[in-house]
Amino acid sequence: MSTQIGTAERPLRVAIIGAGPSGFYAAGGLLKNKKADVTVDMFERLPAPHGLVRYGVAPDHQNIKAVSKVYDRTAADPRFRFFGNVEFGKDITHDDIKAHYDAVIYAVGTPSDRKLNIPGEDLPNSMSATEFVAWYNGHPDYVDLNPDLSCEAALVVGVGNVAMDVARILAKSVDELKNTDIADHALAALAESKIKDIYVVARRGPAQIKFTNVEIREMGHLELADIIVDPAELKLDAASSAAIQNDTAAQKNIDYLRAYSEIGSTGKPRRVHFRFLLSPKEIIANDEGKIIQVKLEKNRLRPTATGYIQSEGIGEYETLDVGMVLRSVGYRGVPLPGVPFYERWGTIPNKVGRVTEADSEEVVPGEYVVGWIKRGPSGVIGTNKPDALESVNSLLDDLQQGKLPGAPDPDPEAVDKLLHERNVRYVTIDEWHKIDEIERARGAEQGRPRVKFVSIEDMLAAIEE
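Predicted structure:
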């Protein structure tokens, strides 16, 4: 009998840490490959898979969430196993993975956020858009976030798709949200919201905005909110005009903004204001510690030697009266126990998906990385597919060249035994399907896609019934 790794008798054993889009694209690439026989075990800290699709995509974007059907097809492969409710570094360690798998792929995303680093940023009701998104999407870690929506104005810092999502959710009526899979606690809180004005602020100009055409177009269809744009802020400097000369998407974004500036206020009870060339400098609270204002510095644009158009303050300021601040200025990864980490960028260092030591850049045999933790937070969900396949190809090339160390104990049952010995209640793919079916059934009763479980305890209780 052959003992060569990657044969039917001794399949290549790969562990994937993280069950989001990049992890599933990597699993799909491995299972479809024609170079080697492969088995995949996927480990996820939460009982539910799909990561960003479940907990990051806005609840009113159900068409985007439909991509999970692709991941379900991958999970249905008999060579695939799901270990939900298993935390890497705690329930299963780096040493465990190296002992039982020939290779590991890290697909953990960038769960942390970048800060503004300004006074008052840590005040109550100043938070990251990441936290707010997780709260309204029913992420178990953020159920108790309890944002205060009793103020009349909120500031969203940033002009990417996530910034647009949170601004849109704040601006929408309950009727517009009640047929989505938004978490029940968020729907109840938004029903009582007193917010009338949402300011979306960019440190650079309209030519540098990052949201997609779809996101800005959606803003024109809000039931309760007008879009307010000052036409004077849409004037482009020469460098910005040149930069987007051949960028149809950027030009279309500005066309939408110009159209909104011409429409102006129609008397709707809420308003979404787009402001440009402003940087928050201080979040100001009253004597009771509640946010009442944000001080912003006016900026101008200056091209650098590399062609990047950066903003710089001009020493002039204005204030906005707001009671809530949501920052959406970038994301960063967090270190994993035993895994190299590049602190400056918040990513796992790598060469074409092969994990490297942060200092020496020496390749770590048998370890790979995909998704945002590999390349930084960029692109949309589909961008993760070619990214994941690049890393999978590196892994398979290393297998063919004999560069994988090979697991000392590749027996699949050894992992089950290990978790049982540690009293880890892991969730299988069949058990996830039961959770999924219950959520969908609860949603069907209300005319919604699903009603989510928002606690790990409730998920585990559901599969024990």
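Summary: The chain has two domains: 12-111+332-427, 116-329.
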